Structures are given as C-alpha cells and as structure tokens.
Amino acid sequence: MPTTVVERFGATSATACKKEATFGTPVTGVAGDFTAMEGNSLNLDPGLFWPKIIVGQRDANVFPLYGQFKNAGSLDMALMPTNAAAIIPGTLGADAAIGFGITGASPTTANTVNGGTTAGATTVTLTSATGYTVGTFIQVDVNLANTTTSEVRKITNVATNVLTLDAPLVYGHLSGAATAKVVAPFTHSITQTNFSLPSFTIEKNLGGFEALQFAGARFSKLDLKCQATNSEVTVSADVMAKSATVLTTPTTPVLNNELPYQFAECAVSLFGNAVNQASTAELTLSNTLKDTYTMNSSHNLNFLSPVARVVDLKSDIVFTSLDDPTWGYFTLMQNQALSTQAAGAFNLSITHPNNAGAWAFSCPTCYIKSYSDSIKIDDIIISSVAMDAALNVTTNVTMTASLVSPSVYLAY
Questions:
Q1: What are phi and psi of 102, to 5 degrees?
Q2: Which of 110, 149, 224, 271 could pair covalently with 101 via S-S, beta carbons 3.0-4.6 A apart?
Q3: How confident is the model over 11-38, as a mean pLDDT?
Q4: Is residue 255 very low, low, confident or very high in pLDDT (cuts 50, 70, 90)?
C-alpha cells in the first residue's frame, strides 16, 4: 500500500547554517545554529538534458541524461542580532581575520603573555595571573592591521600564571602581547578576504519530518534592506552548494530568543553627514561565484570560487535641493563625474536598544552612479540615490562590518 500522506507545516520548518572546517565536508551538531527564516528556496536542479539524436521520430526527448547537479537558492530572513552573524561574515570574508579581531568591553587587569602562544593552544601563560579568575573572560592581544588579532576566551582554570581556555586560540600571540579581563558586549570586526570564502553546511528542515543537508555552501550575494515602514529589516542571501543529502532524522532546532531590527533602530550616513531624512537603505554585496565542474567521478561541482566582488548601495531620501552643498546629490553626482568631487562614504548602523546587539556597515569610498526624483501628486518628492562602492587602494578595503554582541565572544 502507498504511504499515507500527512501534511507538513511550513511554520514547523527551520534552517541551520554552520561554518565548515573543510569545503564540502558536512558539519554535524547544528542545533544551536538555526536561524529564524522567512523562506528557503535552496533546492537541487539535477541537470536533466536530452541529446539531439535522430531516431526516425519527431520526438526530441528520447535519451535522458543527467549532467551538472546545481544546488542553489535563496535564504530570506529578518535581521536579528545573531541570526545572520554567520551569514554576513560568510559573504564578506571572515570574522576575526588578521588584524580584525574580537574585543570585549571595560578592559581591566592589564597584563602580558609570558612566552607566547601558538595557534590551537588551549592555555596561555601570563606574566601574572592575579585578578584572572575562573568564569571570567580574557582578551588576548590587540588588533593591528595585517599583524596581530585580538581574541576573547572564557577562563576555565587558573594554575599559578597558567590560564586554561574554553576554546583553542585561532592565532599565535607573541610573548609580551597585551591581555586584559573584559566583559560583554563583544565587538566582532569583520573584513573582506580575497581568493576564498568560508563554506557552510546548511540544513533545510522540512516540517520537522525530514531535512535536506547542503554541504559546501557559499553565499553568492547578500541583499540587506531597511525601510521606514511597518516591516522588519530583511536579509536575502543567494546560495550555491556542492552537494545535497536527505536526512531522515532532522536536527531539532534551538533558536535564540531575540527580536528583529526595524527602521527606527537604523541610521544612515552619506558623505560624512547623518541622513535622518532617509526612508530606505539597501546594501547589496555580490561575490560572483563561479561553479566549476570537472571529471571528479560525480555530478557535483568541484570548485566554487568567488571571482569578483561588487558592492551596490541605494537610499531613498526626502528631497531637499539639487545643488545644496550637503543635500544636493544631483550636483554631487555631476561633480564626481567632472572629478571635482572626491569619493564619499556610506555608513549604515542598526542598533537594538539596551545593548542587545548592533550591526554596522561601512563603505568608505563610494561614487554616485544614478540620481532620480519621484514626483507624485499625493506624496512628497523623494530622491533615489544609487552608488557603487570602490576599493580604497590605500587600505585595500571596499566594505567592512562589525557586530556588537551581548553574549557571543567566539568568532563566527
């Protein structure tokens, strides 16, 4: 007899996303990595095609073949303090890359590393461990571009001047590196990386019944939107993955109890000026992923490479003037085209009240590519300003981001 069909509910579905140690090798234990999703369209296209072979019939579809397996789709979510904390660094590059680490608040009990540490170490020896106690947090080192990276760990044991840490250090730290005792919130400094992006295992839980596990997933595009209306701040992330597997027993989701951001918690700055009259802000980061298939004894891709980075920005602003020195974006665009106006900065911050988490995005070198006005008889005039972010050749940065987390001190 056929299996009885039982309806499964979208409301009981969920999506988990966890960074992989090795591209394409699935990660287990994703219960605490579920994000509050509004949609997940990640699916498999098996690459069905039909060779055009003449067999004395008009039918074109005679010999079925399957070629490239393409696992692709989009994850849509409301932006929250932690639910996108893996996805945003995964699209931009890295959380706690060299020179851009994690720091805690209210540093006290300054000291130094005695003898240095290596990457992967679970202990650190201080010149003096006085004041460092079990259950408190230690910040090791400071952030210095392309040189040193700060890390935060919880202390699990103190033996004279040797501290045992709750998780291995990612980087080595020189003897004499500064240390301090810190508290929440913790600031994650996220910067772009070249040539590679982290990969993720994404579990698409279908109604709590079964799941699709996508391994070797990378984010090809991230679109973040803020609107001054009755809607939450949203994130849409386009995904490509290496492989897909059915899990007959899905992971039980564990979700963070947190609220999404909304427009009253957003602030926009253009060309060094706070734009309180902005009604929308949109940031789109594209990685131009290239899927490469080779004769690797499978239908799955072998390489998934971020070949180019493009950052697009847009904001709708209440019209003030065409040529005002501050708000005249039409004239600013003309002047940039005539090389009489320097590039400007775009900054977007999204802050929960009561220190419950804050995101900040910065593109220091931007050029206006289009300006338009919306004129309607039943509305005020709104100016739409679209910009391209450019690589700052001095800092080698197009975009940076930061997350101030009320609880998470380890890198995403």
A1: -110, 135
A2: 149
A3: 91
A4: confident
Structure tokens at 352: 């929960």
Q: Identify the architecture of domain 102-189 in CATH.
A: Beta Barrel (2.40)
Per domain, the residue ranges of the chain are 1-40+71-97+193-412, 102-189
Burial 291-312 (b: 16+ CB within 10 A, else e): bebeeeeeebbeebbbeebebb
**pLDDT tens-digit map of 114-131:** 999 999 999 999 999 999
**Strands annotated E in 137-277:** 137-140, 151-159, 162-165, 178-192, 200-206, 210-227, 234-241, 243-247, 266-270, 273-274
Q: Could you give the CA distance from residue 90 to residue 37 in angstroms, rounded to a whole number?
A: 17
Omega before residue 185 within 30° of 0, cis: yes
Pairing relation of β-strands 162-165 and 123-125? antiparallel
> 256 pLDDT band (50/70/90 cuts)?
confident
